[in-house]
Amino acid sequence: MKILILNSSPRRNGNISKMLEVMKQEIECCNAEAVYVRVPELKVRPCIGCMKCRSSLRCCLPEDDAQRVLQSIRDADALIIGAPCYWGNMPGELKVLFDRMVYGMMGENSLGMPLALHKGKKVIIVSTCTTPYPFNILYNQTRGVVKALKEILKWSGFKVVKAIEKGGTRKHPDLTSKEISHCKRAVHKLL
Description:
Blueprint: E1 2-7, H1 15-29, E2 33-38, H2 52-56, H3 65-75, E3 78-84, H4 92-100, H5 102-105, E4 106-108, E5 114-116, E6 122-128, H6 135-138, H7 142-156, E7 159-166, H8 177-187
Parallel strand pairs: 1-2, 1-3, 3-6, 6-7
Antiparallel strand pairs: 4-5
Helix pairs in contact: 1-8
């Protein structure tokens, strides 16, 4: 089994990175393959909204990392996405990446209705923010990230099997043993 991990946090030693590293190690302990991608390091031009990809099934922009990540998603059996909260949503680099890959995530039938291209694949969403618990959820901080990603993933056919939300990272910058255990257990929902 191959699991793609998309880390959209710019912080190499932040909570998202720590949580995803725990999950990566758990995947490898279970004799599965983990492919790890740091989204902030990718070279991806923004979508120009030409809509040509909807009919040609390829992006008209010169090839960059968006096409490579899309191929990794196609090759993966499951996905883990880590996204810190930026204004109640995912980081811009992650949104730009998904914008550029729309033609490979969701198709259309003859009436223009969406067709999921990754039906049956599972995904875990991991999000963090400085807003303390439970306000990270009540004020749609980590919950806003999860909601936005669920919308993209739903239309792409992915089944969200777990969403892990950690609030209050400013006051509690380290992972607790309970949070580490939570990350490890979540991985088993993909296997």
